[in-house]
């Protein structure tokens, strides 16, 4: 009996491992190839309801209406992305181009004053160490200068590399736009054809998964909107207390930037703090650092609880799934893994599958 249990456990483990490996390979390497069509299907699903509503109210044919909606949708999104991209590129170029002059005017004098202070202290203790300190300072300043120069050159090269990839991106976008129109125009026919290829049990399971995932996505959006609102309030209060001008507008911009999982609030607050300290405004730098630390601690405490409670997972499970997902699949895994675990828990609770007790 024990032998049969062990054998069944090993078989189930190997079977589950094969499925997990297949899913990993598919998502990791297949998602990039299928992304234009998957996104087209998602946008078609979103646009079909308003297209039907407009078609019914205006008595116009459905396909011309959905075509206009698709064009309007992509025109608005494209315009916003172009404006954002232009602003981002110009700001990056301006920032990178002034880095050497900022280093010469701000950073190098600050470093020189810092090392001079250390030199005076060391000279009082042991004058023989001053020469070694001067050599170390010269090498350090030279290394920093080369780093700043290389950063400027590499940033321009990176922007040139992104520019060279624009034709491929344009082709993918064109495929996505065309696919969205065709899928939205014949959505019922395509979904009906795919549904007929499945058994009744598989069809019911797929419908259950779709309904739950759509609902969970809405819940996740609501959860992160709440987190962003909390971050905005914290930033607005903190920046106002330390006397930052236009604190409300700056807090709003940083809280929107905070949605990005890799950069987040630190992507703005940390460079801001460092630059402020280099410029010699130590009270403001300390204030910015304190505000950032408070926001980071509160977010790390609240995010697993808010997201976990909304999707029915324990905070530690949510935190672990977000970490593992981000390590394996980046941004997609960061949001997708908690939703996947929540879906598995839901299917297990409803008796559709049996993974755990």
TrEMBL record:
The keyword Transmembrane belongs to this UniProt entry's keyword annotation: yes
Membrane spanning stretches: 9-27, 33-53, 65-86, 169-191, 212-242, 248-270, 282-302, 322-344
Coiled-coil regions listed: none
Pfam families given in the database record: AI-2E_transport
UniProt entry tagged with the keyword Cell cycle: no
Similarity section: Belongs to the autoinducer-2 exporter (AI-2E) (TC 2.A.86) family.
Descriptive protein name: Sporulation integral membrane protein YtvI
Native species: Lacrimispora saccharolytica (strain ATCC 35040 / DSM 2544 / NRCC 2533 / WM1) (Clostridium saccharolyticum)
Classification of source organism: Bacteria, Bacillati, Bacillota, Clostridia, Lachnospirales
């Amino acid at each position: 009996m024990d032998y049969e249990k062990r054998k069944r456990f090993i078989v189930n483990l190997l079977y589950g491992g094969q499925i997990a490996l297949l899913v990993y390979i598919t998502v990791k390497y297949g998602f990039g190839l299928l992304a234009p069509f998957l996104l087209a299907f998602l946008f078609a699903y979103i646009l079909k309801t308003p297209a039907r509503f407009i078609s019914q109210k205006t008595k116009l044919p459905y396909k011309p209406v959905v075509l206009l909606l698709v064009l309007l949708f992509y025109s608005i999104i494209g315009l916003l992305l172009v404006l954002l991209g232009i602003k981002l590129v110009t700001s990056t170029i301006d920032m990178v181009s002034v880095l050497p002059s900022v280093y010469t005017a701000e950073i190098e004098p600050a470093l020189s004053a810092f090392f001079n202070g250390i030199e005076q202290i060391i000279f009082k203790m042991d004058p023989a160490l001053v020469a070694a300190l001067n050599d170390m300072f010269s090498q350090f300043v030279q290394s920093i200068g080369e780093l700043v120069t290389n950063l400027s050159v590499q940033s321009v090269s990176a922007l040139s590399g992104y520019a060279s990839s624009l034709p491929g991106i344009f082709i993918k976008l064109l495929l996505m736009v065309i696919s969205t129109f065709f899928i939205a125009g014949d959505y019922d026919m395509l979904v009906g054809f795919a549904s007929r290829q499945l058994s009744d049990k598989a069809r019911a399971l797929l419908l259950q998964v779709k309904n739950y995932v759509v609902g969970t996505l809405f819940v996740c959006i609501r959860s992160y909107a709440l987190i962003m609102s909390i971050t905005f309030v914290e930033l607005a209060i903190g920046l106002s207390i330390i006397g930052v001008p236009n604190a409300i507008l700056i807090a709003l911009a940083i809280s929107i930037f905070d949605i990005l999982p890799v950069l987040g609030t630190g992507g703005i607050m940390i460079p801001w703090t460092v630059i402020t300290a280099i410029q010699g405004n130590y009270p403001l730098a300390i204030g910015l650092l304190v505000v950032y630390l408070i926001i980071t601690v509160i977010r790390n405490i609240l995010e697993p609880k808010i997201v976990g409670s909304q999707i029915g997972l324990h905070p530690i499970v949510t935190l672990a799934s977000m970490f593992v997902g981000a390590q394996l699949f980046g941004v997609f895994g960061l949001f997708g893994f908690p939703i996947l675990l929540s879906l598995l828990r839901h299917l297990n609770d409803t008796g559709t599958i049996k993974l755990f007790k």
